[in-house]
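Recall from the previous lesson that a structure prediction takes nothing but the amino acid sequence as input. Here we apply that procedure to Nuclear transport factor 2 family protein from Rhodococcus parequi. The sequence below is the only information supplied.
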Amino acid sequence: MTERTTLAADELRALSDRAEIDDVLLRYFRGVDRRDWDLVRGCFFDDAHNDYAPFYQGGLDDFMQFLADPAGFGLFDRTFHFAGNRLIELNGDVADTETYAMAQHTSAADAGHSTRNFLTVWLRYLDRFERRDGHWAIADRRIEVDWIRNDVGGSWMDVPGQAPR
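The prediction returns the following tokens.
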């Protein structure tokens, strides 16, 4: 193999790695927004650590419980994550990523508030990905919340033709 052929193969591998990592990030957002906890779990290694301070810090099993817990993330009945800028820094079988995101949440009607809240969070996901057995997943995640807006409203409009949530 020539030097150029080796370089081309390395470039293709890097592009493939970036695409797989990006897919994991997008599957995470889809899973959270659709309450597909199996899809979310598949984005992490079993020994992954999550730091969502001050909301949650710990391992994957407890994190999955936090997501479904009505006293935790489960107090939101609707969520919508929009992923923006993504930086993926590859270093062999490890990659550090930073993903800008805007997350919008509505509090459930029975979340203990007299009115429902519409919360918008601008944040960054700081992840360490690893490739294990040929598979990329999140090994360590930390979020940095840049700012939050909390709008209080009395009612929400349901989408015509869809059953109310």
